[in-house]
Amino acid sequence: MNQLLHNMNPQQKEAILTTEGPLLVMAGAGSGKTRVLTHRIAYLMSEKQVSPYNILAITFTNKAAREMKERVEKLIGERGKDVWISTFHSMCVRILRRDIDLIGYDLNFGILDDADQLSVIKTVMEDLNLDPKRQSPKYFLSQISNAKNELKSPRDLSKEFENEDVIRVYERYQQILFKNNRVDFDDLLVLTVHLFEKHPEVLTFYQNKFQYIHIDEYQDTNNAQYQIVSLLAQKFRNICVVGDSDQSIYSWRGANIENILSFEHDYPDAKVVLLEQNYRSKQMILNAANDVIQNNSGRLDKRLWSDRGEGNQIEYYRALDGDVEATYIADKISYMRRDSYDYHDFAILYRTNSQSRAIEQAFLRQNIPYRLIGGQSYFKRKEIKDLMAYLRLICNPDDDLSFKRIVNEPKRGIGAASIEKLTQFANEAELSLMASIDEVDNGIARATLNKFIDFKQMIYMLRSQIEAYSIAEFIDLVLRQTGYLEMLENENTIEADSRIDNLGEFQSMATQFEEVDLNEILAEEESEERADELSTMTKLVILLNDLMLQTDTETEEEANESKVTLMTIHAAKGLEFPVVFICGFEDGIFPLHSALEQGGDELEEERRLAYVAITRAEDILFITNAQSRYQYGRRSANRESMFIHEISDKYLNKTGIETRSKRPSFTLQEALDNRSPKKTIQTITLTTDSSWKSGDKVLHDSFGEGVVVGVKGEIVSIAFSSPHGIKKLMGSHPALKKR
Ligand code: ATP
Ligand code: MG
């Protein structure tokens, strides 16, 4: 029997062997859906002689794509590298990079991140005299995003939507993006569909290229993604989708569960394979998952089972407050690590990003190494965004958004009023800001105009030199010539030094990209080009867009480092860990308030999220919560999550303060005694050599309110609220005050 089919159950084998025609694999968590996909890809190549260039696999996150690539390579060797395995968004970037000029954009287009999107919306609202207090910029952004996910243009909306403002904002927003040659994340999908529809020759090219299509997590595709898949699969119809309707958790971002439910309708000749056995978790964990999910209506009743053994009851711990909860988790990890587990075997899952802070504090106190997934992204740091704006402007001088960001960064004596004047002129003359510099005649002072001219000359000088350098060398040149590096060096603070370090890290990444990653990308595209034949500018544009899509910057090595993983449940989709902690299991946090109030679909989605969280655990599952905690700056008391009451008592080992079931539990005093003893010790030792001590409340000019979590000499570690996280600062820094 073929090696690839060895160790597969009969249904899994069937899914792997059904290589031709439409195929749907519907199955619960941990039943081997993703494993079927990787083996099927390897099988196509080794047994069916399918070229790797003719295979496409789409996963939900970059992390999942990276893992799938590794697994395919392990199964099939080097040739596995040539299979396109990516997320929808990365696939679209690659398609657009070759042909976006056919639909009017420049090939050097840049991607806009969410913070940039928001600032464009704010500008649009100002232009249109819309009051942000009446309708928030975020509201418009989400309306636009929804429309795009449904492939609706402003004109389509005007046919059905009553809110005129949304249509006007959408229209103007889109014009600004187009003028700046920028696209947002949703545009990547929308524009790919446009490209396919308007240019059938491009579609045909990709239809012939992707003769075998695989989509993981199909239950979470939105309508634009659905359309892309349908178009690509039209010709060969070899499409294999896998998913689990109980794990649909992205409807708030436009995912449409109907896509998977109507697969058999879309492809009447589809073969459907159901997988039943779970290979991931102990039975007790599956019992809890089954108990919770069965409360959702309108689902096929399927109960997960496993022969990995019964396992222990789920550890349910109700803490007195958020601090005690975090300490409990840290204590358990320290303890269990002495036995048989390593740090990377643990994951802490929470409903919202802001919950990570309390856990981080406890981990820092107890020296537990951790990795935060999806916290403040490296690419959102100011210095990185500034550098990227310089690079973008050099590649595309008409990019007004980048222009505005750095024209006076470092300070060049160009004030907001002058930029405003230039903008007015540019709008009237329908020119970009850069192009307006030579033309402007609306009374900008001569001295200021000269500063603009110097700036323009500097950018064009850099632009003319780029081809003489590698990307990393060029970045060095940019940082020096623009005075950016000098500005940081002169600042002479720890913060500025760490910014310089970050910029250095960016350069190393660019080198790695140029020397290794780029060749892999080009190989996958079956492109004639080799990295060293591309111009530096082209390479830079590819790099910038590639980076925008990375939600985490974790490298392969980092992923294997021995650290505890902290992430939201949404980010944990598809992953598995020997020991999982789900924290903040409280009404109002999980499920969220709004879901509790709304009930219905929203509550059912929260329940699916609970099901996803529980089924990440292989051996041991902890569920924790706290009777009271600080939320939004004040103490609030929360009831236990309604979902805990859906799990049968016989699967739970309840500890901590008294819970509704009146099981033996800690008394209040015991729980209080249980509070981190280490914290007290730290406070005492640290007060001796510094005016700061752990627990002090601070106010920082830029990061807002925070709490001191450690002091070492002059350096104070302070936990600020999301997205800032923990920062190490000089205790004497003037931006820092006691509250
Ligand atoms: P999810 O719904 O969470 O994405 P999944 O259905 O994709 O889960 P996989 O991640 O593919 O499940 O598999 C879960 C675990 O079970 C993996 O560790 C996988 O290697 C293992 N597994 C799957 N099938 C088998 C099998 N036939 N024999 C042994 N182990 C298996
Ligand atoms: Mg999976």
Describe this structure as you would to a colleague.
The protein is of the alpha/beta class. It contains 31 helices and 21 strands. The strands form four sheets. Strands 9, 10, 11, 12, 13, 14, 15 and 16 form an eight-stranded mixed sheet that branches. Strand 18 (704-712) and strand 19 (715-720) form a beta hairpin. Residues 660-690 have low confidence and may be disordered. Bound molecules: adenosine-5'-triphosphate (ATP) and magnesium ion. Residues 7-9, 12, 27, 29-35, 244, 247, 279-280, 574, 576, 615 line the site of adenosine-5'-triphosphate. Residues 33-34, 216, 574 line the site of magnesium ion. Its EC number is 5.6.2.4.
Rg result: 27 Å
The molecules bound to the chains, other than polymers, are: adenosine-5'-triphosphate, magnesium ion
* First-to-last CA distance: 70 Å
Q: Please report the total strand number as a whole number.
A: 21
Mean pLDDT: 88
Estimate the helix proportion, in percent. Answer: 40-55%
Summarize the topology.
Blueprint: H1 10-17, E1 23-27, H2 33-47, E2 55-59, H3 62-76, E3 84-87, H4 88-99, E4 110-111, H5 114-127, H6 137-149, H7 154-160, H8 164-179, E5 182-183, H9 185-198, H10 200-209, E6 212-215, H11 223-233, E7 239-243, H12 258-261, H13 263-266, E8 271-275, H14 283-293, E9 314-321, H15 322-338, E10 346-350, H16 356-365, E11 370-372, H17 382-395, H18 400-406, H19 416-429, H20 433-436, H21 446-465, H22 471-481, H23 484-491, H24 494-524, H25 536-548, H26 556-560, E12 564-568, H27 569-572, E13 577-582, H28 593-598, H29 600-614, E14 617-631, E15 634-637, E16 652-656, H30 668-673, H31 677-687, E17 697-700, E18 704-712, E19 715-720, E20 725-730, E21 736-738
Parallel strand pairs: 1-7, 1-8, 2-3, 2-6, 4-5, 6-7, 9-14, 9-16, 10-12, 10-13, 11-12, 13-14
Antiparallel strand pairs: 14-15, 17-18, 17-21, 18-19, 19-20
Helix pairs in contact: 1-2, 2-3, 4-9, 5-6, 5-8, 7-8, 9-10, 9-11, 14-29, 15-16, 17-18, 17-21, 17-25, 22-24, 23-24
The structure holds adenosine-5'-triphosphate (ATP) and magnesium ion.
